[in-house]
Design a protein that fits this description.
It is a single chain. The protein is of the alpha+beta class. The chain is built from two helices and six strands. Strands 1, 2, 3, 4, 5 and 6 form a six-stranded mixed sheet that branches. It is globular, with a radius of gyration of 12 Å. The two termini are 12 Å apart.
Length: 106
């Protein structure tokens, strides 16, 4: 399990977001049929006016210890499945994400 793709500027991850999920949390990694991996996340925010996207950015930033400005939605702004770009040291970010998912029993 490696979770995400290293890029020149950091890490790119695919996230399946559940808005109105009752809590803000990362829930695990789901393997797709094509071999890619997707992080499962839920947020309390509703999917209106970008609230769920903002909550997801905040959750990822807090989990990885980076500024919200370092997390950007590259694609999927209005979809449940989103691609996020996280600026920084890619291998370190990847390790932090995997550790956070393990701590939560994901």
């Amino acid at each position: 399990m490696h979770c995400g793709t290293l890029t020149a500027s950091g890490l790119r991850i695919t996230v399946r977001l559940t808005p109105r999920g009752g809590r803000d949390a990362l829930e695990g990694i789901e393997a797709l049929a094509d071999g890619r991996e997707m992080v499962k996340a839920r947020v309390r925010a509703v999917p209106e006016d970008g609230a769920a996207n903002a909550a997801l950015i905040g959750l990822i930033a807090k989990t990885l210890g980076v500024a919200k400005s370092h997390v950007a939605i590259a694609s999927g702004h209005t979809a449940r499945v989103k691609t996020l770009d996280i600026a920084g040291d890619g291998p370190a970010l990847q390790a932090l994400l995997l550790e956070a998912l393990k701590e939560k029993g994901a």
